[in-house]
Specification:
Blueprint (H helix, E strand, L loop, with lengths): L2 E6 L1 E3 L5 E8 L4 E10 L6 E8 L2 E4 L7 E6 L4 E6 L8 E11 L2 E6 L3 E5 L2
Parallel strand pairs: 2-11
Antiparallel strand pairs: 1-3, 3-8, 4-5, 4-9, 5-6, 7-8, 9-10, 9-11
């Protein structure tokens, strides 16, 4: 069974930086797209950034230029380096991955990690 293990997160003042990491556990998997989504109180979950490889990366407009997503293709570990953080970046951040098994792509989510931007 695929599990996405997230790390990082925490409390940071506005303008600060933070890094999130996500790694698959439970075996060896064929993974296509991976990414980060976030959900703040009272709002729907939204895309932050996704990556297939270095040539196929997508960012939400709200984070482009401030966040950077990278992927280790050998281990399928993704990092999200967040800089110039704003109060509105406060949310629970979820790792996401498309995993091949059962003759189809399956979507998996991590348990979520809290990011709080506050003085």
């Amino acid at each position: 069974q695929v599990q996405l293990v997230e790390s990082g997160g925490g409390l940071v003042p506005p303008g600060g930086s933070l890094r999130l990491s996500c790694a698959p556990a439970g075996g060896t998997f064929w993974i296509n797209r991976m990414g980060w989504y976030r959900q703040s109180a009272g709002k729907q979950r939204e895309l932050v950034a996704t990556i297939i490889n270095d040539r196929n990366i997508n960012y939400a407009d709200s984070v482009r230029g401030r966040f950077r997503i990278t992927r280790d293709p050998t281990k399928n570990i993704i990092d999200l380096q967040m800089s110039a953080l704003k109060v509105e970046d406060t949310a629970v951040y979820y790792c996401n991955a498309e995993v091949w098994y059962g003759a189809k792509w399956n979507i998996h989510w991590g348990q979520g990690t809290q990011v709080t931007v506050s003085l």
